[in-house]
Structures are given as structure tokens and as C-alpha cells.
Amino acid sequence: MTGFAVTIAPGGPTFEVRERERILVAARRAGVWLPFECGWGSCSTCKVTLVEGEVDLLFAGAPAVTVRDARRQRILTCQTTPRSDLVIKPLTVGSVPSAERPTTDHTGELIGREELGPDIRRFSFRLERPADFRAGQYAILHLGDGVRRCYSMSNRPGSPLVEFVTKRYPGRLGSERLHGLPLGGCVELELPYGDMWLRPGSRPVVLIAGGTGISPVLALLLQLHGAADPRPVQIFYGANSRAELVCWNELETLVAGLPHGRLHGALACPDTAWPGASGLVTAALAEHLQAADAGDHYLAGPPPMVDAVLAHLRERDVELTRVHYDRFG
Ligand SMILES: Cc1cc2nc3c(=O)[nH]c(=O)nc-3n(C[C@H](O)[C@H](O)[C@H](O)COP(=O)(O)OP(=O)(O)OC[C@H]3O[C@@H](n4cnc5c(N)ncnc54)[C@H](O)[C@@H]3O)c2cc1C
Ligand code: FES
């Protein structure tokens, strides 16, 4: 064995974790199914008790890590690598993959890079086999030297292609690496993750995106469009400027093909020709979302936008069980 042995207590299986590898990834590779959800450190689902051994925490500031965790010897298997052989105690362990979370590892070759707006691009990767995901879910991309970042698929599943609408933040680690990848370059991807997939039913659908939150919303809209879904669908999309409201024409075309679809935009810095709402996406929600529209809500974007929309929906007594969201950070 070249790595470390990790044993599940009490008396559970033992599997190998390679040097600097995450416990969760190694367990999945070995067919040991530990609980997980987000895969990157925000949900706490993968928390286990460290019974014996030494570890390195790979994302000490992960949202799911609390000060009590260190005292109680609790670690996130998705963001921890062993420094010695370990014994860990999870709440549950399975021997078959969960049908809900069929996450697997892929290699993707960058075959397309489309300029959509200022520092905003759509990346297309060809995988070695068709990807099993639901519209609205995300992948974790390995961008070198242990840097992993989440990106939501913007295309429909069922082919070996995965696409992502992403923004480059100058000087920041993950997005610079992704935007610097040459055509023909390869990345490792884990997918799918996330719970922002379309629930069946007859209730109206409300899709809300801020900035690159349009990536999963585009995938959801493609699914609704492909199925000629009869539900009323409203899309609310906010960005800073008209140039950053990327994929707008694509959205208009898709919405026009829905039996009952409406598209609303909001710009924080509108020009004089902009006919939509001014301000944050909550301004468009306040203007157009009637109480009668209450349905299933799906939202994605930067944390301040997601928090503002959640507060807005709460004020309107929208049941939180009908709100599915991805906070991009
Ligand atoms: C579920 C989800 C879906 C997303 N989908 C998209 C998308 O479709 N398009 C898009 O442009 N962006 C998306 N993002 C945002 C994206 O993952 C990056 O946060 C963004 O590209 C900025 O990364 P950065 O490394 O350039 O910036 P940085 O400021 O270096 O890092 C930004 C974020 O990375 C996370 N992070 C830091 N260290 C670690 C670590 N060790 N492991 C894991 N995460 C870490 C933190 O959340 C931090 O807020 C998504 C984020 C999440 C959580
Ligand atoms: S799987 Fe969500 S914190 Fe680890």
C-alpha cells in the first residue's frame, strides 16, 4: 500500500487513501459509500468522527467547519486527507452507490471556449463517456495543485458533453486556472453533485439567476423546453450591466418555445435603453412575481444575491421546501 489505510469503526471495511487524496474520493473509488452531498465543504453531510490518526484539513475555512468540530474530533471527509493510518466513525456506510448520488470521476478535454461577455465564457468539455447528471446539478473540477472548484452544467445531460458558463475573477485561483486552460487541455471532474434539479408536478416554475447563476438555470430551461413542459415558467435574471446579462437571446428563444414562459431581467447599472427592472434581481421579483405564482423556486448565484432572494421569498411566505438553491461560494 503506497498511501494510508482508513478503517471504518466499528469493525468496518478498510480502504486505501493515496497521498493528498480526499478520504471521500478514495472511499468512493474503493466502493465504500460514505454519506455526502455537496462534495466541497458547505453541507456537513460528510462529517465523521476521527477516532485515531492524524489528518490535514484541505479547506480549513469551509462553511461546514465549526469551532466545535475541532474539539469533538469531527472532520469533513470531502476536505480531509490522512497523514497516518486512520480510524473514522461515520453515521452510516453503504456498500452500493446511492441512486440519489451517482457521483463518478471523469476526464474532460476542453473542446470549446465561447466568449459571452466581459470575462464570461462558456466552456465545453468532452468526457470519455456520457455524463449521468440532472439539469441544474454541478461538477467539481480539479484545476491543478489540489485546487477544486464547483461549476454548474449549463447543458442537458445524456451526451459526453458538459458545458459551464463561468466568470473569470482576475488574480483569483480557480477561475484564473479554468480560463487559462488551452483548447485540448484536460481536467479531472467529479459529477454530479447538488439538489437543484427540476421537481415533477404541475406547480408553476420560477427560475432565478444572478450572474453566472444562469449556468444551471439555462440547463433547467433547456429541460423544460425539450419536454414542452406545460407548467407556467418565469425566469428572473439579474446582472450588473447589459453586457454581463449573457445568453439573453438564447433565453428569449427558449422562453418563446414554452407554452407559458416569461423572461424578466434586472440590471444593477442599466443603460437608458434597458426596458427591464433596475436594481437587484429582487426588484424584478417584487415587480412581477405575484403571490398567485407561488410554485417551485430554483435559484443560483453569488451568496449575497441568493440570501437577498431567500429573504424576499420568506417575506412572501413562500414555503422553503419549495425553494432549491445553489449559493456560489
Ligand atoms: C455549487 C456551486 C456551483 C457553482 N457554479 C458556478 C458556475 O456555474 N459558474 C461560475 O462561474 N461559478 C460557479 N461557482 C463558483 C465557483 O466555484 C468559484 O467559487 C468561482 O469560480 C471563484 O473561484 P476562484 O477560485 O476564482 O476564487 P477564490 O476567491 O479563490 O475562491 C472562491 C471560492 O472557492 C471556494 N474554496 C476556497 N477554497 C476551497 C477549497 N479548498 N475547496 C473547495 N472550495 C474552496 C470558496 O467557496 C470560495 O468562496 C459555483 C460555486 C458553487 C459552490
Ligand atoms: S459533502 Fe458537503 S461538506 Fe462534505
Attribute tags:
3 domains; 329 residues; Ubiquitin-like (UB roll); 19% helix; six-stranded antiparallel sheet; 2Fe-2S_ferredoxin-like_sf; Elongation Factor Tu (Ef-tu), domain 3; binds FE2/S2 (inorganic) cluster; alpha/beta; Rossmann fold; 2Fe-2S; oxidoreductase activity; binds flavin-adenine dinucleotide
Summarize the structure.
The chain is α/β, with parallel strands linked by helices and 329 residues long.
Secondary structure elements and their pairing?
Elements: E1 4-8, E2 14-17, H1 23-30, E3 47-52, E4 55-57, H2 67-71, E5 74-76, E6 80-82, E7 86-89, E8 104-117, E9 120-127, E10 138-142, E11 148-152, E12 161-167, H3 173-179, E13 186-193, E14 205-210, H4 214-226, E15 233-239, H5 248-256, E16 261-267, E17 277-278, H6 281-288, E18 296-301, H7 303-315, E19 323-327
Parallel strand pairs: 1-7, 14-15, 14-18, 15-16, 16-17, 18-19
Antiparallel strand pairs: 1-2, 3-5, 3-7, 4-6, 8-9, 8-13, 9-12, 10-11, 10-13
The structure holds flavin-adenine dinucleotide and FE2/S2 (inorganic) cluster (FES).
